[in-house]
Amino acid sequence: MTDRAEAIGIFDSGMGGLTVLRAIRERLPSEPLLYLGDTARVPYGSKSAATVERYAQACAGVLVKQGVKLLVVACNTASAYALPCLRAELDAPVLGVIEPGAQAAASQTRNGRVGVIGTAATIGSGAYQEALLRVNEDLRVVAQHCPLFVPLAEEGWTDGPVPRQVASHYLASMRQAEVDTLVLGCTHYPLLKTVIGEVMGDSVTLIDSAEATSAVVAEVLGGAGLVAPEGETARQRFLVTDSPQRFAEAGARFLGHELREVEWVDFS
Ligand code: DGL
Fold first, then answer.
1. Burial, 239: exposed, middle or buried (Cβ in 10 Å; 0-12, 13-18, 19+)?
2. Which domains does the chain have, with CATH numbers?
């Protein structure tokens, strides 16, 4: 039987999923969290569907072996390609970031024009476009991949003329289509929220899937009777497939505080 004291398992191709971890942490501080960043294989966003699926299965395997009560696929690319196979294989509930982000965007748009930005793989999969149209088939959806946003966020280059110019280039189609809601469909993009917001203007609502996902996590845990016992200081552990030191340094930018307990794991 699943133990409600077990951790919520969260994985991403690298450190971008820390934005999802942070949102879960803020909403559910008593939940122990176990995060896996597949830093040896990042980026997933430029890989094929079969490769992303295989990597996601390996990540889930590592977390399940440690004992997790719920699995959050905190990577848009892996959510786009691997949710069906993970759900078929695992006993624990598996949540992705695409459905929550799409639901939030569909409920917040006023003019019915929604933009989605993400990696080439996520946008190419059509997963967001389909999820949005499932909620409301009358929406007009504009999608754009923004490959340079990931390295900019990883380098901490989130402000100034270079990210602004890159954002202006990528977001021109969104402005032209007059979207009033824009989904940040990649775990790294919330770090560029200020620049993206400046380029899009105040009237455009930015949807951070991390926020929406944390609300669904709370709902699913409650529904399954898996909420952690209250009052305990929840532990956060981090596993990585490449250098723990590099992850700890760059991860501090994503979380805004120092990361402790970063360990290396091997998939084989
Ligand atoms: N985590 C990925 C995503 O949300 C972005 C980084 C990558 O390409 O692996 O799609």
1. buried
2. 7-96+211-264 (3.40.50.1860), 98-209 (3.40.50.1860)
